[in-house]
Amino acid sequence: MDMKDRNNGKKKNRKFSINKRSLRFGSYSFVLTVIVIASAIILNAIVGATKIREKLKIDLTSNKLYSITDKTLEVLKSLNEKVEIIGLFDESKMGDSQYAQVIEFVKQYETNSDYIDVKYVDPDKNPGYIQNELDPEGILGVEKYDFVVRSSKRSKVLSTYDIFDVSFSSSTYSYQVTGLNAEYAFTGAIRYVTSDNIPVIYYTEGHGEDDVKDDYSELVSSLELNGYRVEKINLASVDKIPDDASIILFVNPQRDLSDAELDKLLYYMENGGNTVFLFSPANTKLANFEEFLSRYNVSLGYDVIFEMAANKAFYGQPYRFIPTVESNSINSVLEPDKFTMPLAYAQSIQVLKNEKDWITVTPLLSTSSEAVGKSLFEGVEDKNGPFYVGVAGENNGYNDTSKTIVIGNAYFVSDDGMSVYDTGKKFLVNAINWMQDSDADIYIPVKEYTTPRLTKVTQQTLTILFIGLIIVVPLIIMGAGVFVWLRRRHL
Q1: Which of 23, 72, 242, 389 has the smallest number of CB atoms closer than 10 Å to its CB?
Q2: More reliable by pLDDT, 110 or 419
């Protein structure tokens, strides 16, 4: 064999050797690719069929918008019965709405408890569902886009206003969704529908009071979320206050108690009964109410507070002001230094100088020393501050300790009053829980929305961004592609 034939033989062997190596390398790559893809499919199926996917998610939002707190986890761990969370809308059509955040958030309840089941029903596709399944008697007022939380004991309806924090914007003169209140709402609802014992709060009628169920519906909802039942009572039509009454609530009465009603209320108080009084300013003397309040060393100021301190007047209007939330054991859960709750047309609450060892008065809300109390009666001089506009009283001089809350305003917890700031209901519910020696109000703050924005973008910054995104990044990608192509070409 001559030299030419030997060279040709070597080339053929070399070519065969290269092809064989390439084939072996390609086979390994193919098998490895198949294994990786199969593993990914199996792993994805396992994760998708369990709650692992939700547990693996990481909440990167600055205010932990999609995370539940330890307080909620405690509530979920204590469950021993099934709870359904039913959203009344088409889940698949909410991707671009704010309800998408709620849908994502509610998954945390189902992920962290085997007793929670979440489902969605579109009333448009199933028009009889609300009437037949959720509210046969029509007493819950269930509507589309509501959530219903229910157990075998009872149900609780959560509306948009329960789930979202809605505030009035003075710049646009419109209402805007400013935060997510979903955790407070859902956790409270779960606790309400699973509670064995529901304390009853009776609100009164017969003295020109505001209608609580109609004008204070948000307060009622918040009380229910904290495990209370709210009912109406007319003291004139009952022989005595019912034994199941945990609290008697007076909301802005315009007429005085009768002597018979006062006797019933005193008997209730002397046996450990608790009361709440919300008195907006009125130029009518309420002698029997005053007689009852004197048992706690408290009286009404019969004035209108004008807060003259510039940093306390609300938008420069002295009759609307930001009271100081006093730091004490009652208010501590509210974080008084950070808590803002405006009042409008409030009257002062006086603490009598008739001190007794068995009576304790704790200030809850106060004004600055620059405030003025303008009398509601002619010929009575105005008073100078500081004033109390909310106090808590305890009387230990009878069979059982009796407590009262007296606030010189009712509007701050009305639906209209809370359309601007809804912190009033949280303040009052916290005080009511103190009266019950209850820590039921877990007080989960609203998760405020934050709007990230670019500021001070200079021309130099824009140029750098242009070069980086339009030129550098594509070149890197192209270079990586060429490198891979050349390497594969020489295999």
Answers
A1: 23
A2: 110
